Amino acid sequence: MLGGLVNGLRPSGEQQRSPQRPVVRGLRISPEFWLDLTALVVAVGATQLSAAVAGPGGTSLIWVVVAVAVTLLSLSASGQYRPRFAVSLLDDTRTILGATAIAALSVAFLRLLFASDPHIATQAARYWLFASAYLIAARGGFKWFVSRSRRLHGAGEPTLIIGAGSVGQLVARRLLDRPEFGMRPILFVDDDPLPVADPVDLPIVGKEGKSLADRIAELVDERGVQHVIIAFSLESHEQQLELLKRWGELGVSVSLVPRLFEAVPDETTLERLGGIPLITVHPVDPRGWQFAVKYAIDRVAALVALIVLSPFMLFAAVGTLLTLGRPVFFRQRRVGIDGHAFDMLKFCTMRPASGPSDPRLEEALEKGLAPGGVEGEDRRTAFGKFLRATSLDELPQLINVLRGDMSLIGPRPERPEFAERFGKEVYRYRERHRVKSGITGWAQVHGLRGKTSIADRVEWDNYYIENWSLWLDFKIILLTILAVFRDRSE
Questions:
Q1: Which end of the chain is more exposed for a tag (fewer CB within 10 A), N or C?
Q2: Res 433: pLDDT
Q3: Structural contact between residues 143 and 85, judged by C-beta atoms closer than 8 angstroms
């Protein structure tokens, strides 16, 4: 359990290492551990101070130490102190709330066994609240600082990618787009890279007659490589296995892109037949009971939302009527679950078109971009711009949800002509139609709105379908609300 607290010290690129000698590693405790420990010390101080002021009295020092230790052990057991890529604060919040609850309940139980203090429950609840609040605040500030620093300064571990084909190029592009992951691609290793459209501007080097492990060891010393990613390449199984066996000697960490990676959901189990690992995947069945529950919740939530938001809808309807006249609702044919078409509703925000369709739309489609936003001449009224900026124009889609045409959360639907085209041109596009389309979705909260890559949007949508949970829907709702306010402020 304590193993997650300690990570190996990675040698810097300036140190010279011999690939033939093992690298001597020191011990380094994760910075998140020190951050959490500091936050817990401050939280305990606030807990004791508030208890002294408001009563009842504070907890004895021994039980405070036990609570802090159990909290840190719970966080360690959940993998919080292992090296990780970027993890959302919402995911960390759920883990923190669980860890502090376990600590508070454990200490309360032990105290009940050995003491008869009538205020045990109150003191446990106070610890849980203060510890959770301070840990979440500390993690949020830390993640914001690290993410901002990496984006501004291009910081990150120098990363080498084995394989310069389509998968390796995709990995490099994603890492370059997301510097908060903490890995900075610097080159590919590939003797015979396959041709790729729009390759990433990184050098590609070969093995130069050496074994893969020896060539990587050479590059570790020459380029200061600290992380190696094995993407798909033409290297033999034996060569890649040799590299994995020697990664400790090289002093670098290694990540692998698995075969069939598109079909590997978050929920997996690892079992062994002797020395042979078996990875069993557990994707969510879009036709199973989970989505039946989701759609039932959608309808109830849509009904409640229509009642609560009715003043805003009345305001939008009256404003639309005064600025554009009738009809108040804009109806557009869209394609939803199983390819069935339906009329999606919005508040009208634009005057009728007076000319032919925008030729630039076809250019955008040829570039792999999805349609959206303002197409052609900007025909929006001033009130229509306000409705779009605040996303109030989307509220009538709650009626679509109540009818059963849509879900609150899911892939955004496209017009029939575009759905037919993308179904032929875009990998896995038709798989989006396994579920009901949504007002918002996993792709949208990651910035894939309007004229953005349809292929990327499909990838995120299919991830959502195969990894669906009520928690994921809750995250998307919160991220959507944040995105609306963020876009409004901009």
A1: C
A2: 95
A3: no
Residue 342 in 3-state DSSP?
strand
Lowest model confidence (mean pLDDT) among 144-158, 159-173, 380-394: 144-158
To the question of domain 156-261 being in CATH 3.40.50.620, the answer is: yes
Give the per-residue pLDDT at 355: 60
* Three-point CA angle 440, 98, 58, nearest 5°: 130
Distance of alpha carbon 381 from alpha carbon 394, whole angstroms: 16
Residues 6+ apart with CB under 8 A from 245: 213
What's the angle, vertex CA 110, arms to CA 105 and CA 113, rounded to 5? Answer: 130
CA nearest 285: which of 466, 430, 429? 466
What's residue 27's pLDDT? Answer: 47
Strands (E) across 190-275 are located at: 204-205, 227-230, 253-256, 268-273
> Is the model's pLDDT at 4 over the cut of 70?
no
Judged by DSSP in three states, 240 sits in: helix
Q: Which of 140-154, 234-248, 251-265 has the lowest mean pLDDT?
A: 234-248
**CB-based contact 248:22 (threshold 8 Å):** yes
Helix (H, G, I), strand (E, B) or coil at 256: strand
Domain segments of the chain: what residues?
2-152, 156-261, 289-489
Distance, CA of 470 to CA of 295 (rounded, Å): 11
For residue 64, with 0-12 CB atoms within 10 Å meaning exposed, 13-18 middle and 19 or more buried, which class applies?
Answer: buried
Region of 76 please: left (phi>0), alpha (psi -120 to 50) or beta: alpha
Helices (H), 78-211: 89-114, 120-153, 166-177
pLDDT digits (tens, 9 = 90+) for 281-290: 888 889 889 9
**Across-strand partners of 331?**
345
**First vs last C-alpha separation in the chain:** 45
C-alpha 81: how far from chain center: 19
**Four-point Cα dihedral 286, 292, 296, 301, nearest 10:** -30
pLDDT tens per residue across span 198-230: 889 899 998 888 888 888 888 888 888 888 898
